[in-house]
Amino acid sequence: CGNYQTMRTWKSKKEFKELFVKKAEVLFEKSVKELSHKEVYQIIATMIKDLVTDEWIQTEKIYNHKRVRQVYYFSIEFLLGRLLNTNLLNCDMENLCRSALQDFGFDLEEIFPEEPDPGLGNGGLGRLAACYIDSMAALQLPGHGCSIRYQYGLFDQRIIDGQQVELPDAWLRNGFPWETKKSDKAVDVRFGGHAYMRPGKGGTLVCVHEHYNTVRAVPYDVPVLGYQNHTVNTLRLWKAEYTRENMYGQLRYGDYRKALQYKDQAQQISRFLYPNDSTYEGRKLRLMQEYFFVSAGLQSIMRHYKKHYGSPKLFDRYIALHINDTHPALIIPELMRILMDEEGLSWEDAWRITTNSVAYTNHTILPEALERWSIPMFQELLPRIFLIVDEINRRWLEAVQQRFPGQEDKAREVAILWNNQVHMASLAVVGSHSINGVAKLHSEILKINTLKPFYTWFPERFNNKTNGVTHRRWLIESNPQLTELICDTIGKDWIHAPEKLLALEPFGNDAAFRERLAEVKQKRKEILAEYLHKERNITINPHSIFDIQIKRMHMYKRQLLNILHVYHLYRQLIENPGMDIVPRTFIFGGKAAASYGEAKITIQLINTVARLIDQDYRAARKLKVVFLENYNVSLGQKLFPAADVSEQISTASKEASGTGNMKFMFNGAITLGTMDGANVEIHQEVGDEHSVIFGLRADEVQQYYQQGGYSSWDIYNSDADVRRALEVMEENPMFGQLREALLDRNDEFFVLKDFKSYCAAQQEIERRYRDADGWFRSSTVNIAHAGHFSSDRSIQEYADDIWYLSPVKI
Ligand code: 26Y
């Protein structure tokens, strides 16, 4: 097998430098002195890809040779973030690279920002997928990602006059050095046409699908490196292209216009990522995207499986298919189609294999995010898939009717086809063997509310897998200063076994350790302040409390509650200029879906309050509000390490899990949160003493909903602080819409209801911050207990309980 000990390393700085010089010549025909920073980035990325090529091939060979069981993680989003630093860390080559570049007169830290941030995702769901493939490789599990190679990622956010403006994100402009195009592995995906059943041999029925259009799916593979091991898994991203045959076919019928239209439509499929997080977008192109990558991915898996593993009858023994929310749920009818139409299996065999292979993760209980497609559109676009879904639905409802004869309402609750719509969550539940939520509370709510009728049918399918984040990116890579302190204190074992961070807990009582921790935090705050000053022309006080809320803009996440409290503080301050408060910097960041009016106005409101305070000398020394443009993974990596306070203030029951909360925790921030999503488990880990919890509980919120809500006017009328806070909305008629949502539309997200309790919690934060010893003791306890929220823990649970996967040494 060769000497793999040395494969993923440049043997010496000398070797690195020689290769570097050669690459500069080959790629750019330049000497080292002439290279731009961007070119240096491209050279190193290419060198790393060369470096891992052999291991990539070797990993694949060993999987095939041993016929190991593998998982494919289907997700319509992978929010990767930059890869250079991650890959250097995974190869353990960061120091060598830094020092070699220094000899050439370059600073590695100045090279990192040259990499465009691949934003192939909206938020939590897409970033989770990226953390999960990182952990699979780190744990040496045979697992791969499957998604779309969007030409444009999530839009670039600009703030102009306080308002969000969206610009296209042409992240591929200068190419993507981590990918390899695999033209010979392209597959064809069919859309449209007519499908019907006709009698085949021996009384069977066979399907005829004709007059369809073919779109070519071309895979681009990105290597996923394990952490300092030799595993290299694959993230396969599909690009849509037209096929000449299909276009010529249209021309043969004499329709030039149709031929061009076809070409355009085919290429359109992988053009844009849908920038809508949590609201269902009923668009035809979106459905095409979903079928496109599912069909392409599954066809290529099946082809590979048959070549190396054998009979399709044993597919489920070797292959696990995971769907990240319902967006890839068409994998269920697509696998049925392949097994029956292409492999000749019976319905019964195909169904058993399909349900044994597929597992589904739900990420939301918001009804507006549950996918439903209009049947006429679905049928026109995917006629063969529709026939299969129709039959799945027919057999399923037959079973329901047998158990509950004559009870129409039972069928309505669980039908896949209902009201002229395809219900994707119902399809996903009926067609998989495992259904999980993403935090304990969320998984419970699925059972008792959202998916209750299904839970009574299949209790054994339901389980919880609390989310996690990769501590390699979110601690080791983002916060080297804290990493060094932890290693100095408890050694390095925690890097491979993050739960061992617990060994840090006793050091919370060690004054010398706390002092060093305080120094690290101070350093990270200064780094952030300097960056904001240099790159964004924003001045913040590094000796103030950094209080940060960074996530998508959404009413249920309640950025509105946060800014109303800031305004409340401001008004207190100007009415009482001598008020003794610890200076605070409130930092916000997040994108609003372009069509989400209220979320966009909230951005405007935050910027209005920011300006108000900046222009008022009575407040500006104590308070500062910053809305950071274009929050993305890279900016996150600068913010989490600098945070004192982690704002996790969603309306209880609404945030399925949250993952930012975990990134803050790894970096020693204190959670200020509601009992929602994974906050509940963070609180369970660190207790009341080391987190600050406020607001209605999930069951109380649900109770109010059942009663038709609460009266926000009552609170308004009885609470002078609330009335005064809402005066901020008189600044601009634009804010009328928000005011209406809070008062006339009865405050769906309990902002006013939780206001008092939030203000008290903020006071508690300040009280605790004044006691530096207590604060850094809490900070230590949070870091110590963060190990539980590593995605390594989550992925181990998925591997054990859902995928039945074992690690493979490479
Ligand atoms: C249907 C379509 C428009 C759609 C697109 C994206 C629907 C939902 C989404 C994204 C959802 C999402 O990001 N959900 C988040 O998933 C995280 C990972 O599990 C959770 O931590 C977070 O609470 C949840 O909001």
UniProtKB/TrEMBL annotation:
Top-level class of the enzyme under EC nomenclature: transferase
GO CC, alphabetical: cytoplasm
Residues the record lists as N6-(pyridoxal phosphate)lysine modifications: 663
Reaction it catalyzes: [(1->4)-alpha-D-glucosyl](n) + phosphate = [(1->4)-alpha-D-glucosyl](n-1) + alpha-D-glucose 1-phosphate
Signal peptide: none
SUPFAM superfamilies attached to this UniProt entry: UDP-Glycosyltransferase/glycogen phosphorylase
GO biological process terms on file: glycogen catabolic process
EC number from the UniProt entry: 2.4.1.1
Source organism, top-level taxon: Bacteria
Keyword Glycosyltransferase: yes
Record CDD domains: GT35_Glycogen_Phosphorylase (cd04300)
Statement: the UniProt record of this protein carries the keyword Ribonucleoprotein: no
Keywords assigned: Allosteric enzyme, Carbohydrate metabolism, Glycosyltransferase, Pyridoxal phosphate, Transferase
Cofactor: pyridoxal 5'-phosphate
GO MF annotation list: glycogen phosphorylase activity; pyridoxal phosphate binding
Matches recorded under Pfam families: Phosphorylase (PF00343)
Entry function: Phosphorylase is an important allosteric enzyme in carbohydrate metabolism. Enzymes from different sources differ in their regulatory mechanisms and in their natural substrates. However, all known phosphorylases share catalytic and structural properties.
Protein family: Belongs to the glycogen phosphorylase family.
PANTHER family noted in UniProt: GLYCOGEN PHOSPHORYLASE, GLYCOGEN PHOSPHORYLASE, LIVER FORM
This protein's name: Alpha-1,4 glucan phosphorylase
Source organism: Succiniclasticum ruminis DSM 9236
Lineage: Bacteria, Bacillati, Bacillota, Negativicutes, Acidaminococcales
